[in-house]
Amino acid sequence: MKVCLISAPTANQFDRRAVGEAEAARIMGELAPVGILSLAAVLEAKGLQPEVVDLNRVYYDWLQQSNRSNAKADFCSFAGDYFAGRDFDFFGFSTVCSSYPVTLRIAAEVKRTHPQSAVVLGGPQASVVDVSTLRAYPSIDLVVRGEAEQTLPDLVEALAGDRPLAAIPGITFRRKEDGEIVRNPAAPLVADLDALPFPAFHLFPDVRYCRHFPLELGRGCPFSCTFCSTNDFFRRNFRLKSPAQMVADMRRVKQTYGINSFELVHDMFTVDRKRVVAFCEALLECKRKDPEDAFIWGCSARTDCVDEELIELMSKAGCRGIFFGIETGSKRMQKIIDKGLELNDSAERVRSCDKFKINTAVSLMAGFPDETMDDLRDTAAFFVDSLRYDHADPQLSILAPLAGTPISTQHKDALVLNDNVADMSYRGWRQEIEDHAMIAGHPEIFSSFYSAPLPHLDREFLKELRDFLLSGMRAFRKLLLGLHQDSGNVVDVFQQWQEWRAGNGIQFSNGDRTVYYAQSAFPADFIRFVRLRYIPASKAPLAITALADYEAALLSGDSGHGQEQASGEPVLQDSDDLLSPDSRLRLLPGVKVIQLPADYHEILRRLRQRRPLHDIPGQQVKLAIRSVPAGSAEVRQLTPLSAQLLDLCADGFTVQEITGEFLLRNIEVPGVPVSKACLAGIEILRQQRLIALA
Ligand code: B12
Ligand code: SF4
Q1: What is the pLDDT of residues 225-274, one digit of tens each?
Q2: pLDDT value of position 576
């Protein structure tokens, strides 16, 4: 039996920008489909030689050739051609909601070209819409529901021997005799995850390029949030691999691929504190035995299943990232959606992680059917409040009613299909006319493309607020926090901005909104709004002006000598040469010096501690901003002495001339001769990579 396992396409990044081959391989490596690689390993253990096809790779290849004149205009026909030349008895497609229409269309192509082969679906989406899928799409022969390590080998064997399918638990199939859809009882869960073979990563070559290697830590979350599908999928049965097994797997990855950074897959790793401690201790022990075996990793947790002590231990054991599903900043909504987090504690946990340098994804959602404007304000507040921590990365999605979840079942007759906006369930996949027709025709299958009814909220307002917060966070993080703190709630600022932009002719139709917010026009317009409209009525005009000036300098290219160099002159590198009196110094490219009307560090301290901004004293301070790779910036508030030195360097003075200027201006450093003070100050600025020998 020749088996082909095919991943669900999930790589939305390819559509956004030109992605080179190496970058694409890295993205694909990070998206390695752990589920089907686990299945492939099980089949290999049974003596089969399955092949794995990565639909992300096929999609990437299609995008690469789609500019050519003879290219296929549609990804599905391209993928269809790809499979047409391959001969398998069994095509098994993995599925997720976001790419389900595309997957079904490719599967139909495969059935057309391979009518004798079995076309099978598995994974989280097909598992919950099994019966309706088989009814609506005759090209699909059967669906394997839930975890499939036990079912798939039995199924392959049964199909190979033409044995009846009725005895195989965990499948839903179309009976040959009468076309009836038969849903067999569920298969047992995999009780001992340690007993599974190591996933067949060797069948997925791109994995060697990834920065964070995906490894399964366990399965099953015992909680019952009403919007969540993954709890039910693993039947709320919490399981973990043993620390010894995990450490062995991590060492094996390091030995095979040279990668020591991991994305540990489990929806809720920290349910059992003792086992988290055991895992961390096993990692620390491993590192003690061989310092080369120091691993770093990320995981998912609930904020009420970690405490500061545990976070500290996790950090010591190499944890560098935690995904926290906070979902809503509203106490009332926490209860309604059965999440039940105590929000003050959640905020505290984000702070604890920041303290131990663990990055947190603070994941929030809006657009729940019961949500009111007050709830939305609380969620927006939680989002912006978390910006005070440098290691926090808030996220805001609009609820996608995932099939099979309590929330989508409850509102199934009131779902709204009003656009194809890329929300939680629709990330990056081009929606072809055919996809749209499928979605419109089958809300029961594609519910995640619909919105929940929102009797208390304006949908367009919600979407624009989401775009505003996400783009605002990226473009002017500290200013957004300052405005929120000054005004009391960022939603008030957003409403003022909406009014101002409409009054100033910045209008857009529905589809252009996301584009506008993603482009540089938005931050530039917004800073104009802050200066012209917000600051005159602000309680803390000095602090907000300083923040706006700072963000404007980061955004613009015209605010410093460094930028002039960067645009017009060859790149300067500093040498190790010692300074002589004739040495002439210049600002390094990418360095800007700006002046602010208040102490920037004091503003940041107050933002972090939630202290008022209105009584910040007026004081001229200078900041040196140095662009560093990866688009971020290093910011230093300069002492008056450094500020003057930097000005003189920027003006092209020699060391001797700078000393002369200091003497002329009577600038003194108590107890140090002026020439020595200048030399020492210049050396420090060189070390800080702000200036270099010209
Ligand atoms: C890692 C992950 C991702 C990675 C993708 C990595 C990849 N290529 O697989 C990234 C971060 C990209 C991602 C993105 C999204 N994800 Co995601 N993701 C996960 C996560 C946390 C782990 C997946 C995993 O490895 N599981 C472990 C393996 C062992 O389980 P498995 O994949 O389900 O496979 C088993 C079975 O399903 C079955 N099986 C799977 N495939 C097949 C195929 C055949 C033929 C057979 C027989 C059986 C079978 O057997 C496997 C072994 O038992 C799951 C949650 C979870 N715990 O599973 C969510 C999950 C899959 N994601 C989900 C969602 C909604 C998304 C997004 C749409 C969300 C978003 N915010 O945008 C995006 C999609 C992006 C896009 N452009 O399309 C949902 C899917 C729900 C649904 N009904 O489809 C899940 C279940 C989480 C949830 N919220 O409920 N995700
Ligand atoms: S805690 Fe997370 S994984 Fe568990 S049910 Fe809630 S949302 Fe789902």
Answers
A1: 999 999 999 999 999 999 999 999 999 999 999 999 999 999 999 999 99
A2: 67
**Quick check: CB of 325 below 6 Å from ligand 2?**
yes
Nearest CA to ligand 1 atom 15: 10
Query: Could you tell me if the CB of 225 is within 6 A of ligand 2?
Result: yes
Looking at residue 11, its pLDDT comes to 87
Confidence of residue 564 (pLDDT cuts 50, 70, 90): very low
Number of residues that this document lists for the chain: 694
The per-residue pLDDT for range 289-328, each reduced to its tens digit, is 999 999 999 999 999 999 999 999 999 999 999 999 999 9
Residue with tokens 């998206």: 31
Nearest CA to ligand 2 atom 1: 223
Q: Which of 231, 232, 303, 402 to mutate to test the pocket of ligand 2 (most atoms within 8 A of CB)?
A: 231
What crossing angle do the helices spanning 521-529 and 459-475 adopt, rounded to 10°? 90
From 140, 144, 230, the mutation candidate for ligand 1 (largest count of ligand atoms within 8 A of CB) is: 230
Of 210, 137, 143, 147, which is closest to residue 173 (Cα–Cα)? 143
**Would residue 13 be called left, alpha or beta, if left means φ above 0 and alpha means ψ between -120 and 50 degrees?**
alpha
- Give phi and psi for 160, each to the nearest 5: -65, -40
Question: Could you tell me the distance, in angstroms and rounded to a whole number, from the CA of residue 325 to the centre of ligand 2?
Answer: 8
Q: Is 152 in the pocket of ligand 1 (CB under 6 A)?
A: yes
Interval between CA 33 and ligand 1 midpoint (Å): 8
Q: pLDDT at position 558, please? A: 43
Task: Tell me the mean pLDDT in the region 600-606.
Answer: 96
pLDDT score of 74: 87
Beta bridge partners of 322: 299, 360
Whose alpha carbon is nearest atom 3 of ligand 2?
267
Q: How far is the CA of 225 from the centre of ligand 2 (A)?
A: 6
Compute the distance between CA of residue 111 and CA of residue 142 in angstroms, rounded to an integer: 12
In ligand 2, the atom with minimum distance to the C-alpha of 228 is 8
Q: Are 5 and 121 in contact (CB under 8 A)?
A: no
- The residue to which tokens 């039996």 are assigned: 1
Asked whether 408 lines ligand 2 (CB < 6 A), one says no
Q: What is the distance between the alpha carbons of residues 79 and 60, in angstroms, rounded to a whole number?
A: 11
| Residue 296 backbone dihedrals phi, psi, to 5 degrees | -120, 150
Ligand nearest to the CA of 15: 1
The span from the CA of 217 to the CA of 673, in Å, is 62
Across 3-17, 34-48, 364-378, 597-611, least confident range: 3-17
Residue with CA nearest ligand 1 atom 33: 123
Task: Check pLDDT > 50 for residue 567.
Answer: no
DSSP of 185-207: PPPPP-S-GGGSPPP-GGG-GGG
Closest CA to 591 of 574, 611, 609: 574
* φ/ψ of residue 444, rounded to 5: -70, -25
Distance 120 CA to ligand 1 centre (A): 17
CA 369 – ligand 2 centroid, Å: 19
Could you tell me if 42 and 148 are in contact, meaning their C-beta atoms sit under 8 angstroms apart?
A: no
